[in-house]
Amino acid sequence: MGQPIQTLTPKINKVFDWIHRQSRTTTVFLNFLTFGLIWFGYSTVRRITADSTKIAYDNAVNLVKFQDWLGFPSEAEFQKYVIDSELLIKVANCFYFIMHFPTMIVFLLWVMFRKIEWMPQVRASLCIATFTGLIIHLAFPLMPPRLLGSYGFIDTAKVFGPDPYALGIAKAANELAAMPSLHVGWALLIAIAAIKILKSPARWIILLHPILTTIVVVITANHFWLDIIVGAILAYGGWLIGVKYWPIKAFSKNQEELNQETVEESVPSEPVSE
Questions:
Q1: Quick check: 184 and 61 in contact, CB under 8 A?
Q2: Residues 143-154: pLDDT tens digits?
Q3: CA distance 147 to 173
């Protein structure tokens, strides 16, 4: 077992070395590839689950009951606190539909041009969190709260506007992918990465991004509490895996240390002369 691993590890390290190079061309290519794969995965899941409306509805109803059993407050109650403020609701709707992809793109551009040494870790974390989320979308299609009017939820985009679905964006969006909330997941991932990368005490202000995103997805009835929790877990787990276990050289180093310890243990100690 040890010999094949020792043989394979240097080859894998060569791939990771290429990915880890600080070449702008390599970084741009890998970033485009990442977003291309994410969009392809998202579109594929959307097509596969397009006819899962009944399943997504049943899952949503069961999730509401499960959250009630856990003692979670109803998201509809939070809507009631702000539903009378049309301006606030419209701002929240715009935030939800505008901030998701552009914020991540801007963040990746900042990392690429200002903190490129962090690019492989950030990109790996994004891929781990997002593709895990897409697998959950596929395995557990879930209707968002805004489509459960009978439970007291209000579709704020349709009632107050702006409604991007009415403009044809619905063709590109997966409306049965509430679990997990990648809006919250991506926002938290950006915050975690920025706090880790930056050294200024002011860096903690970036936590406002996931906090505001969480508030927005609730008052616009786009996600349940458990969607948010799972999205946050994916973000944190993706960061831990992408950073703590990147690059694979860490494995190689551990393997070399283990081999060295084995060699040292196998060498007989010299007898002590009297």
A1: no
A2: 999 999 888 899
A3: 14
